[in-house]
Amino acid sequence: MIARQTLLLAAVGAALAVAPALAQTIPQTPAEVARPGGKIPGTPKLSLVKVADGFNDPVGVSVANDGSGRIFVVERVGRVKIVGSDGKVVDQPFLDLTKTNPLGSEVQTGFVEQGLWSIAFHPKFKENGYVFVHYSSLPFNGASIVARYTVDKASPNQITTEQANKSVKVIMNIPQPYYNHYGGRIAFGPDGMLYIGKGDGGWEGDPLDAGQRMDTLLGKLLRVNVDTPDNVAYSVPDDNPFARADYPRMMSLFGVTEEGFSKIKIAAKPEIWASGLRNPYMFHFDPKSGDLFIADVGQNHWEEINWQPRSSKGGENYGWKLNQASKCHPLTGANDKCPIVGVLPVAEYPHQEPYPGAAKLTDGWGCSAQGLGVANYAGMEKTYIIGDWCSGRVWGVAWDKGANKWQLQELMQATFQFTAGTTDEKGYVLATNCFCFYTEDKGPIANPPGGLWRLLPANEVTAGMEVARVKAPN
Amino acid sequence: MVPSSIRYARREAAAAGIAIVFMLWPAAAWSQQVEFRHVFDNSPLDVAPKPNEQFTDAVREFHRTGQNPYGGKQEAIEQGKQLYGQFCQACHLPGGSGGMGASLIGDKHIYPRVTTDTGLFEVIFGGASGAMQPFGLRMTQDQILQVMAYVRTLMKK
Hints:
The complex is a heterodimer. Helix content of chain A is 7%, strand content 32%. Chain A is mainly beta. In chain A, the strands form seven sheets. Chain A has a five-stranded mixed beta sheet, with no helix packed on it. Chain A has a five-stranded antiparallel beta sheet with strand order 21-22-23-24-28, with no helix packed on it. A four-stranded antiparallel beta sheet of chain A has the order 1-27-26-25, with no helix packed on it. Chain A starts with a helix and ends with a strand. Chain B is mainly α. Chain B has a two-stranded antiparallel ribbon. The two termini of chain B are 27 Å apart. Chains A and B meet through strand 28 of A and loops of B.
């Protein structure tokens, strides 16, 4: 037996010796997690080029992938604006949730993390006209609502108030305990399922233990099937990792393996795809490979970027609130020791103070990771682009085939507060920025207007393009 | 770093001589002699008055000299403290020791130019990165000078 194993190991070793590069893998130790200072081979010099501006607190952006070239910018107040393929903003909102409720806005915007966050287009949008939105509801006391609206083909650039109220279908209503950490983005995966980023419900330190509890939708990435009859809000895909974890069953004490017992999770929510998340405001599927990246906003000291291959069966626990990034939570000093719970991120970057009492960094820090999209152009391969809300830094996260490890590279520092992003129909990464930081927020239509930008290789910038003021990393 | 306080030759008559013109035609008569530059790329900052913004004598003097006339003036410092509480302290903390924003205390600064009045104005007015937005979009230049007067009291601690 031992001799057979030895032979097998020898054969594997020989195979590895001639293998050109290892497939990307999830880090198994904190030392394997990428941190600032890395270099992603093939990444070109990049520029942020203005697409359009004048948006009130733009906090989300999507495309319909219907060949129209339209870009849909989400304004926190409750409106979605179209930027046409000519770069002009259509005056009339595509969707206006401030008008659909006769008693006032449908959207709660009292705190800067509240509002309309996201719009997602059904994979068969061109045929069925279905769009889905995610927002904090005023009538439901700040609960987060996922709802579907149907575009009238006779009015492709505007869902009128009448059409909105006629076609609306509520998919989910998730009560919210506090006014922060809602999550935000919703998006269809390559499997046709709707994924919903849900934060831990707020305050700080996850006082509800939502990230680790499986009986709440908070602190999770959710996965549901929305292709259901109109009188069925949604269904749980059979292959969700906890689809049957709380399935009614007879109790058997014998003849069941320990692994079998471990799959019984009473009260586990079957919609859960991944747990242990703090505030996954932005996540993106790689349009090319179908892999998933999640930018999970951290608390006081570290931001984390998670990755799942397309082949993932779900069920990953990203550790919050027992870990933040590869660190302990709560973090008390430089040498804290604690177990790593669940799955490590592929990349992490510090806040200005990486641990309590640390000397403040003057470089390489941020405070709130907003995923912008996965780049596959100009030499970049499956590179997840991150914009930081506090420091304006733009990072790339990618697997370095030559070094067989993940790399986190600072690409530039902009003046922006990045809020959201996506890839356009040509695959370029788009980003929105606002002037709506916590302390200066004067309300969703009172803040200075924000903009929409495209991340282009610097050598594709042509005369007449407005390029954002950026600083190369030190 | 390109010097932030490049002084230009006077383009107008002496300040005293044009005071009456200011009163009759204040916006057009504004004359900038210090060139303010963005901390990121040293591109010029547009410090012309915003619509409905009336420049005070202190702002005009600052544009001429690059020195904050409110420096050390108790009344302006008190006003600046109020504004600091409204716009700055959530990030920089009440004593300026820094939290989400940089520490303002001591002599180590992310942008060394903040040790000069023009440099400090450039960072506050034009913004730096991310959450350190261009506060020229939210405050008048006179208010920024008041904030600067208060911030200087923190920096000396």
